[in-house]
Amino acid sequence: MIDSVSLTRQVRMHSPREMLSLGFRSACQHPSELCTHRARWKLPGGDKKPHLTWSEAPNGSHWLSLTGSLQKFMFGSNVYPLSSDDEIRACIEGTSQYVQSVAQVSFDSFRAYVTRGGLLPRLAHDQRFSDPVPVGVARNLPSSHA
Q1: Which of 20, 24, 45, 119 has the most crowded CB, counting CB atoms within 10 A?
Q2: Would you give the distance in Å from CA 3 to the centre of its chain?
């Protein structure tokens, strides 16, 4: 069973002022506005909510990631195994609604890149993962890739 997953989509970031108003915090703690780090914003998820990370890639594209336990998000506990496609669909739909609510953007989780929690940067260099893994079959990936 996979507990935590990351769902990542290319989504344009809001302005820094809007990011702050939504509760996001800059990952860079430099006091200068002349900092040269790429933009990276985090929104902690709390006890049962997944956390969000918005990052700027070297090519200037923006990526929004939701990372957390689908079981804990939907059912309040990560010991509950997702046992059917209907339960997985409900969780994925719930994540789309959650992101849209807190980040104020459209986020289609069914079209997201899916990895185990926090592994997307490593897998992004693997050509076998150049296309999104359909959410409905992500749980069927071989364990070396899940």
Answers
A1: 24
A2: 14
